[in-house]
Amino acid sequence: MKEKIKVFITGGTFDKEYNELNGSLFFKETHLHEMLTLGRCRLDLSIDTLMMKDSLDFNDADRQSIANACSAAAEERILITHGTDTMTITASYLAKNCRNKTIVLTGAMVPYKFGSSDGLFNLGSALAFVQILPAGVYIAMNGKIFEADKVKKNTDKGEFESIS
Amino acid sequence: MKEKIKVFITGGTFDKEYNELNGSLFFKETHLHEMLTLGRCRLDLSIDTLMMKDSLDFNDADRQSIANACSAAAEERILITHGTDTMTITASYLAKNCRNKTIVLTGAMVPYKFGSSDGLFNLGSALAFVQILPAGVYIAMNGKIFEADKVKKNTDKGEFESIS
Amino acid sequence: MKEKIKVFITGGTFDKEYNELNGSLFFKETHLHEMLTLGRCRLDLSIDTLMMKDSLDFNDADRQSIANACSAAAEERILITHGTDTMTITASYLAKNCRNKTIVLTGAMVPYKFGSSDGLFNLGSALAFVQILPAGVYIAMNGKIFEADKVKKNTDKGEFESIS
Amino acid sequence: MKEKIKVFITGGTFDKEYNELNGSLFFKETHLHEMLTLGRCRLDLSIDTLMMKDSLDFNDADRQSIANACSAAAEERILITHGTDTMTITASYLAKNCRNKTIVLTGAMVPYKFGSSDGLFNLGSALAFVQILPAGVYIAMNGKIFEADKVKKNTDKGEFESIS
């Protein structure tokens, strides 16, 4: 596929790191470039960091910011890395406010830097889906693809599920 | 997607390990299950190990074996993990001998067990493509998807490229 | 060295894990056995988990418990894995209450399970020191060895330093 | 300990990497600095790469080169990273040709870059031993310390053992 894909980074567990001085989790720089190198990804990507926030801290202004960036992007296909806690909310917002593009959101349950992370698998998964799917907003988690408004995060199991 | 996906394991660098007693690379058991757990993959998969061979050691009988397994499988969507050296040859063979199914081959340039592996990324990528693509035989490497007979491995760069 | 070495596990960052359901750090089982296997350690060790606590939560009863265990042990050489935050306090307590044995405390600034951990290095270091040093209580961190009461944790730098 | 320690790098499995273009193992740069950073080692070290060779390829000239470097070094305490296959031969050579210094050799059964490596554990172990032991030549492997001429590598088990 020759089309360029836009990648917007917004933070989430995907990019968190461990602060050894105080034992907390925090954001430094994104690890996306390192992950794409590890995956030997040769896609034509344009990558921008919009923000580095835990999605529990997202407000309407943040979501509007993401929607504006998606609309303004020259690309028709967009991947967004995002915290899993409110990924479905952002997906719904984008479905209303940014039509006519293929937008796929993904994230990770464990920080990439922590070793046992699903981040690299999800990145491969989401980048595949965004190349093929028709215009719409989707969530790629747990190897599956979900349409916005038809998915919820099962917080007991820590996984995403379809809702009718 | 509710359809079950079949996964056939055939070996390749994807599953090699380091033998610390003599410094060589060899096959023990597949790491696919461990990788699917790491990726928190919740797809409905049926997994079989057909063989554990370096694809440079494949012969016609091996390829026929893979084709037969694909045809005999109840599933319409099949992922095959395979060595990268002769992946394009197997893909061409399957395109002639196993029609009407969506078959995606993938592998890794670095063994999963070696840390800096593209295996997990490729697995996520291939499992996404196999759910969406129409019937045909494909190769998923470097984040991209290629149709059988339209791809070659660039051995200088260690990556896959389209050919017209 | 033919002598058996006792290892007491008490928790600390060394053994913490990431809870992907709520993003917190917590204790499950110790990873010490896994680390000793990774290090291909062939020493004769007797391993006991005394508790799995963050050392910021330690109280006198916990320290007394550790001292009692050290005194009761048949072994003359004892390694203790411990949180770094109050390691110096426990070391001082043991220097007063458990004499005539070689006791070395160590820990980690980053959980072993997080990838970029100093845990494995410190374990190798501490196991070496405990085999050679004369009776006394010591802390092994940052590749160095410190006597109890002559060391403090520099919390700005996240490392251990001598004090006169 | 305030004394500076010299570290001589000579190669061995410790520093090997996987060449994904042809599937072989080879040397690029040493990973020692990365490992010392991971271990948060704060010792005062002077590090030199003497050569990057598999110790099966060592000849007398190589060993003489190592002995000369040890004698010429200002430091009294020296760590040498070395392939495990002929580590005992080099240790014996040094015991004859470089007296009056504390010299500890260590290595790894699995390349550090391969994930499941004993390299980091051995590095912590060897750096501890070299600080404490009296003048002599030693091998630090499997958590243990052996005197030169009193150790052999058990190639069936892949570990080091005492010989009387």
Structure summary:
By secondary structure, chain A is of the alpha/beta class.
Description:
The structure is a homotetramer of 164-residue chains. By secondary structure, chain A is of the alpha/beta class. Chain A has a single domain, classed as L-asparaginase, N-terminal domain (Rossmann fold). Chain A has four helices and ten strands. In chain A, the strands form three sheets. Chain A has a six-stranded mixed beta sheet with strand order 4-1-5-6-7-8, with helices on both faces. A two-stranded antiparallel ribbon of chain A has the order 2-3. In chain A, β5, α3 and β6 form a beta-alpha-beta unit. In chain A, α2 packs across α3. Chains in contact: A-B, A-C, B-D, C-D. At the A-B interface, α1 and α4 of A face α1 and α4 of B.
Offer a few descriptive terms.
homotetramer, 164 residues, alpha/beta, Rossmann fold, six-stranded mixed sheet, 4 helices, 10 strands, globular
